Amino acid sequence: MSLTVDQIPDADQAPPGADGTTALTRLPAVGTRRTLLRAAVLGAVTIGTLVLTWGRRARAESNPTGLQGWDRNDCRDAYPTGYDEVGDTSGEYVNAYAACFGGSWRGSTYCEAGWHKHGTWTYGTVTADFVPINVMCGSYGTKNAWKWTTPDGHTYRCSDGMTTYWGGPNNGQTYYTICRSSV
Fold it and tell me: CA-to-CA distance for 31 and 34, rounded, in angstroms?
C-alpha cells in the first residue's frame, strides 16, 4: 500500500507520547513534512526537466520525411561567410525581419509542422505538389533546413523544397520554395 501526500501527518499531528524530531532545529524556520516533501518533488521535477532539455538541444533536428536540419542558428555550416536575407513573399512573416535566403518563393505558406510541406494540396482549382529537398541548402547539400536569428532575437527555420503547381496561371511550373517557421 502506498502513501499519498495527504496521508503524511504534519509535525503537530504526532500520536500521543511520540518523541519529537530534532532535525532542522538549528534553522531559523522549520517547515512541515509536507513542505519538505513538496520541495523534494519540485527539485526532482526541475532536474528532470533540465535533463530532458539538454538532451533535445544536443540532437540534430530532422523533418517528418527524415531529412536533417542544422541545429545551430548562425548558419556557418551552410554559409561560412553568411548570406543576405531576403524577405518573405507570402505568409505570416512578410512584414517581419528577413530570415531566409534563396528560392523563388519564401514564406510560412510552404510549411507544415515547422518544415517544408510534403504531399499534394488543393487550393480551389489549383493543385500543388510539395517535395522537401536536401540539395539546395548551402554548398554541402546534405541538409534540408537551417536556422537564422533575426535582429529582434527571433529564431526561424528555413526549410527547402520544390513546389509544382497544376492548374491556374502556373500550370506545370516547378519552383524552388522555402518554408519559414518560428523555432
Answer: 8
